[in-house]
């Protein structure tokens, strides 16, 4: 038993939540706080992908790799780094943070907020109805008075390449739950998962070959991918861009994998991992029973209410609505949607205008994301190209981090770059990108500036402490106003 009350019969609740990951937990918590009764349905581990195979284990594994790299950047500390990472200790640290893949604690949390947990496969069965099938075949029928919230997440998308079944490739799950270090590892894909896994496994001792069809992290500013690629190369990884996999061979299940590329070359490795995208986990949740196509991303309005379903009762949160496949963004959606569900249940008007209490406006304007590579890459809002495409009149301001003395004190010969994208008509920030050691801790200040549309005239009065890496803000703002005043004088 998992410590929560598992209803052995049918039941009626105000809200039924499909998926007990961080997103499902947050919408359940918000609904319970409003006094609504809630049932939560989970087919795997309570805590979901993020807790056991994605964000939490990957960061637990990456932290020792980055900590050693940080030490090597500081003279005096560098000399103390005399050995390799203790991989057994690194894996033990990961195991601690995922609770040994035991979800008892998270199931207890569901109980603590007053929600009921149903373990099994949940499927919609017409409007406001969910059937739950347990592993032993027992079935429960749940009815929702007000809302069903779909928070079933996504799963890895594997391409249809010849030999892929024979190769038995890793996905993010094997990449974060493996307890052994492959001698040679090919990673296919240059997005966030690919570059973090390349950083991790190269740091743990694998010889990593990163295979990327285009550039690295293409949704960030181009310099971000370039600096991360340089960091991986300096760490010993083989970064190959502009190529793609055309075939895989693994005739001996216990033997190596041969990866064939479209440039005619081959790479022999012990394991191959695909990080080539995600697909929604909506293929077997009964969408057809409410007139929606199974296996599709769900289109939602600003309150995360699914479009095309009558009655204002079906919500889609997190990965399944494809707005931003990031845990923190899904939790934001869940909090906002939970409040909207409570308002609708009580008959209160919705505040769903821009930046309203029931609007997920940040999904379009201020999505922060961090990749824990070496160097780290962090960004919020629009890139310069995205801003121009959206019709803004913009100015980009760039600087290297060595312009801030605090950065040089943080790491000898600190290498990094920063850019802010300014809306010239309103003089507010549309986007900010940082690349460098430890820049993830700078991102929330940028997120506040972008989400709050803080005027640059006011932002320049936010004094950065000396000597910290955050002094980069002073450099960026000084450059903007210097150029603005010079252009005005010329005009």
From TrEMBL:
Q: Which Cys pairs are S-S linked?
A: 50-55
The entry marks the following residues as binding NAD(+), namely 189-196, 277
Q: Name one GO molecular function term.
A: flavin adenine dinucleotide binding
- Cofactor binding remark: Binds 1 FAD per subunit.
Q: Where, by residue number, does FAD bind?
A: 59, 122, 152-154, 319
Cofactor(s) annotated in UniProt? FAD
Report the residue ranges that make up the Pyridine nucleotide-disulphide oxidoreductase dimerisation domain in this protein.
367-472
Residue limits of the FAD/NAD(P)-binding domain? 13-328
Gene3D superfamilies from the entry? 3.30.390.30, FAD/NAD(P)-binding domain
Assigned protein family:
Belongs to the class-I pyridine nucleotide-disulfide oxidoreductase family.
Protein name (Swiss-Prot/TrEMBL): NAD(P)/FAD-dependent oxidoreductase
């Amino acid at each position: 038993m998992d410590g929560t009350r598992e209803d052995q019969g049918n039941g009626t609740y105000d809200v039924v939540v499909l998926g007990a990951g961080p997103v499902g937990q947050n919408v359940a918590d918000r609904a319970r706080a409003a006094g609504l009764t809630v049932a939560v349905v989970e087919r795997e581990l309570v805590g979901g992908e993020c807790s056991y195979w994605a964000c939490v284990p990957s960061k637990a594994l990456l932290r020792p790799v980055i900590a050693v790299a940080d030490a090597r950047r500081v003279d005096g500390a560098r000399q103390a780094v005399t050995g390799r990472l203790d991989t057994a200790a690194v894996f033990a640290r990961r195991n601690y943070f995922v609770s040994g893949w035991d979800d008892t604690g998270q199931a207890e949390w569901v109980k603590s907020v007053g929600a009921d947990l149903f373990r099994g496969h949940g499927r919609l069965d017409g409007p406001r109805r969910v059937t739950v099938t347990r592993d032993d075949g027992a079935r429960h029928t749940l009815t929702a008075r007000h809302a069903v919230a779909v928070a079933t997440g996504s799963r890895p998308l594997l391409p249809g390449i010849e030999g892929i079944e024979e190769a038995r490739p890793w996905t993010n799950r094997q990449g974060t739950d493996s307890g052994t270090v492959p001698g040679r590892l090919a990673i296919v894909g240059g997005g966030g998962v690919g570059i973090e896994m390349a950083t991790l496994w190269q740091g743990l001792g694998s010889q990593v070959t990163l295979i990327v069809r285009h550039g690295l992290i293409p949704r960030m500013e181009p310099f971000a991918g370039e600096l991360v690629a340089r960091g991986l190369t300096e760490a010993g990884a083989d970064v190959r861009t502009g190529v793609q996999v055309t075939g895989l061979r693994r005739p001996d299940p216990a033997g190596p994998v041969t990866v064939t590329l479209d440039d005619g070359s081959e790479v022999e490795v012990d394991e191959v991992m695909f990080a080539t995208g995600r697909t929604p986990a909506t293929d077997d949740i009964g969408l057809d029973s409410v007139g929606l196509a199974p296996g599709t991303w769900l289109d939602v309005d600003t309150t995360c209410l699914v479009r095309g379903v009558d009655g204002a009762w079906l919500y889609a949160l997190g990965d399944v609505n494809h707005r931003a496949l990031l845990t923190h963004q899904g939790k934001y959606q869940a909090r906002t949607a939970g409040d909207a569900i409570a308002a609708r249940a009580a008959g209160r008007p919705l505040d769903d205008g821009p930046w309203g209490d029931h609007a997920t406006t940040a999904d379009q304007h201020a999505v922060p994301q961090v990749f824990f590579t070496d160097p780290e890459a962090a960004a919020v809002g629009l890139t310069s190209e995205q801003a121009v495409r959206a019709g803004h009149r913009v100015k980009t301001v760039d600087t290297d981090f060595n312009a801030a003395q605090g950065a040089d004190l943080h790491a000898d010969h600190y290498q990094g770059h920063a850019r802010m994208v300014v809306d010239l008509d309103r003089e507010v920030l549309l986007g900010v990108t940082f690349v460098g050691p430890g820049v993830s801790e700078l991102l929330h200040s940028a997120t506040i500036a972008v989400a709050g549309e803080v005027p640059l005239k006011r932002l320049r009065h936010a004094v950065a402490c000396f000597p910290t890496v955050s002094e980069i803000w002073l450099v960026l703002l000084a450059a903007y106003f210097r150029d603005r005043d010079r252009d005005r004088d010329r005009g």
